[in-house]
C-alpha cells in the first residue's frame, strides 16, 4: 500500500516536445511513467512510494563491454542503451566496462600497465577517461549522460570530454588528475581483468551480459530491441508502462 497526495486539479497538462500529457482520472495510473507523474504533480510521491519499492534483487543486471571509439559500440550506446536508460531505468542496473579488445602489458620498471587499443592511443585515452568518470560518479544517472555525450560526438577526445563534462556537471579537473595517476591505471587494469574473465570469452564489441550470462540470441535481441529484452527478463513486480507496451 502507498499513499498519494491528491492534487487539486484532476486534469493537469504537461508540455513535452509540443505534446500535451493529461493527468488520468484514475489515481492508480498516476505513477505509470515519469511524464504522467509530472503532469499530475506527484513525482516526489511516486518516487518515494512506488518506484523505489522494487527491491534490488528484482532488477535486471545489464553489463556492456565496449571501447570508446568502436563505431558499433557508439551506435549501440547512443541508441539502444540510451533509450533503455530513458525509459526503464527503474528495473535495470546498467554497468559499463570500458576496455573491449584492448591488450595490457605490465611494465615492472614503472609498476604500471601499458595499454594497446584496437583504434589506437586515442581510444585508450577515451577508455581511461570513462573509467575515471565511472569511478568518481558511480551512479548510472551521474555517468550515463557523459558517456552518451562522448559516444555521440565526433572530434578530439580531450576536447569532446571537456565539453561533455561541462554539460553533465562533471568536475573534469578531477577526471584529468585521475587519468594521470596510478589510480587511473589500476581502474583500467580492473576492467581488463573483468573483460578477460568473461565466460564465454568475448569475441567482439559491444558485448553484453544479462544477469551475468551471454548468448548469441541474447546479443541479437539486445542490438535490435534492448528495451524488449530487459522487459522480458524482468521478473519483479510493477513492470513499467513501457514494458506493458512490449507485451
Automatic annotation (TrEMBL):
Residues 16-56 form the Saposin A-type domain. One of its GO terms (cellular component) is extracellular region. Residues 1-20 form the signal peptide. It is found in: Secreted. One of its GO terms (molecular function) is oxidoreductase activity, acting on a sulfur group of donors, disulfide as acceptor. PANTHER family: GAMMA-INTERFERON INDUCIBLE LYSOSOMAL THIOL REDUCTASE GILT, GAMMA-INTERFERON-INDUCIBLE LYSOSOMAL THIOL REDUCTASE. Belongs to the GILT family. This is Saposin A-type domain-containing protein. It comes from Adineta steineri.
